[in-house]
Amino acid sequence: MPCGDPIAIKLDPATYAHDRRLRAEAGITPKTLNNELGYIRAVFNELRGLGQIDYANPLELMKLYKIEERELSWLTQEQIVDLLTAIREGCENPHVEPIVLLCLATGARWSEAQGLAPSRLRNGAVTYSKTKSSKVRTVPIQPELEAFIRDHWKRHGQFTGAITSFRRALSRSGIVLPKGQASHALRHTFASHFMQKGGNILTLQKILGHSSLAMTMRYAHLAPEHLAEAVKLNPLAAVTLSGQLLPLKTQNP
């Protein structure tokens, strides 16, 4: 517990801010510190809602650390083929391939796909219930994929832990991803390809189960119309389209 586990009523913003700064200097990441602040705020709010305390949340006005947004890594079509080849040729765990295919086909998180129960696959659609946002969402899949997964379950049973085997296959494929984005890159790959092929941003939000559109908007820049606007609306567009853009002349000193 930050601040040395103080009595709740004695926790004040200045003490918390000082402790947070020391922990940041010690190497605790801004994301972790922001998560902790959110948890502590939630505790105070819950206690007040239950009538257990009668004072205001002492950390209500504390600001979160600003976190620089990381570039989302996603796989190209060629890399997807390379990854699936590495899985099929060298994975000792039979569950890796169907889990990867589900992530790529539905934008699921690894844990959601791995935890899929047979009763959640029916009528050409997958339903994820135990999700990060606690929202139930249903995503259609190709008939061939449904048949493949059902046949897999008959031969190997329900999915079990396969993330370690997946990471080994990823390493064998030669694909290099930023730290911490290994399995999540599959989800980013679904979203990126969805937008590049003209998908609707609101539909993508529902498929991914994002609680806010702001989270989904990270992928909006990949939409074809967005990329086309970069060509049409840049300051050189008018002269370029009218054939007036001339090569720059080198001036003599």
Write the layout of secondary structure elements.
Layout: H1 13-25, H2 30-49, H3 77-90, H4 96-106, H5 110-114, E1 121-122, E2 125-128, E3 137-140, H6 143-156, H7 163-173, H8 184-196, H9 201-208, H10 213-216, H11 224-232, H12 237-241
Helix pairs in contact: 3-7, 4-8
Domain Tyr recombinase: 70-232
Protein name: Tyrosine-type recombinase/integrase
Keywords: DNA integration, DNA recombination
Account of the 3D structure:
This is Tyrosine-type recombinase/integrase. The model has no long low-confidence stretch (mean pLDDT 84). The chain is globular. A three-stranded antiparallel beta sheet has the order 1-2-3. Strand 2 and strand 3 form a beta hairpin. The protein is mainly α and 253 residues long.
Give the C-level CATH assignment of the largest domain: Mainly Alpha
> What would the principal axes of the Cα set say about the shape?
globular
Q: What strand line-up does the widest sheet have?
A: 1-2-3
The CATH superfamily of the largest domain bears the name Intergrase catalytic core
Beta strand count: 3
The largest sheet is: 3 strands, antiparallel
**Unreliable stretches, pLDDT < 50, 5 or more residues?**
none
Helices, by number, come to: 12
Output the structural class: mainly alpha
CATH architecture descriptor name of the largest domain: Orthogonal Bundle
Strand content: under 5%
User: Total domains, how many?
Assistant: 2
Here the CATH topology of the largest domain equals hpI Integrase, Chain A
DSSP helix fraction: 40-55%
Mean pLDDT: 84
Termini gap = 67 Å
In angstroms, what is the radius of gyration? 24 Å
SSE run: HHHHHEEEHHHHHHH
